[in-house]
Specification:
By secondary structure, this protein is α/β, with parallel strands linked by helices. It has one domain: Rossmann fold. It has four helices and nine strands, in the order αβαβαβββαββββ. The two termini are 20 Å apart. Residues 79-83 have low confidence and may be disordered.
Length: 185
């Protein structure tokens, strides 16, 4: 059963703000500059990973001052839960990736299983180069492969259950204006 509105509000009210809205916007500005420097001459194909990557991608795209083809895909392991399961493709990308540089944009690099599977899929579809951009990299040693890092990372945060700026708590609070950690998780 879905938490009541009061319970959801309590989660927000008791949460720890790890990164303010200003911190997030500064991180996106820095990432946009790095992405522009590296990809402006490559005709990249950008994939927003739904739903988590939606807010981040929406903030990032206008800061990329070069032509970029933007599409979306939807793969998930969470299904509005707080722990991940088996990867489920809700919508595979349809754009032609052959010979292209692909940039996958998502909200968080946690264990990396979803991001890794999406990158592998893009390579299998003929992408020449696959790069990843995440707003948040959660710091822990449970990555799906040792040393896994995104090519572009906005913020490094502690290993807690996060929500805000695209990340959700049981399907809610993607709209929280910063990066928050659930009390006790």
């Amino acid at each position: 059963m879905t938490d009541s509105r009061d319970e959801l509000q309590q989660v927000f009210d008791e949460a720890d703000c790890l990164c303010s809205e200003q911190d997030v916007h500064q991180a996106i500005d820095t990432m946009a500059a790095a992405i522009s420097e590296q990809l402006s001459e490559r005709n990249p194909l950008l994939f927003c990973v739904m739903n988590g990557g939606l807010i981040f991608t929406g903030q990032l795209l206008p800061k990329l001052r070069f032509p970029v083809q933007a599409e979306y895909l939807h793969a998930t392991r969470y299904r509005q839960e707080t722990t991940g399961g088996i990867l489920e493709w809700k919508l595979r990308p349809e754009a032609d990736m052959r010979g292209r540089t692909v940039l996958i944009v998502d909200d968080i690099l946690d264990e990396g299983t979803t991001l890794n599977a999406i990158a592998d899929y893009c390579r299998s579809q003929g992408a020449e180069e696959v790069l990843t951009a995440v707003l948040v990299d959660k710091q822990h040693d449970r990555k799906c492969r040792p040393g896994l890092k995104a090519d572009f990372t906005g913020l490094d945060v502690e290993d807690r259950f996060l929500f805000g700026f695209g990340m959700d708590y049981k399907g809610y609070w993607r709209n929280a204006p910063g990066i928050y950690a659930v009390k006790g998780l």
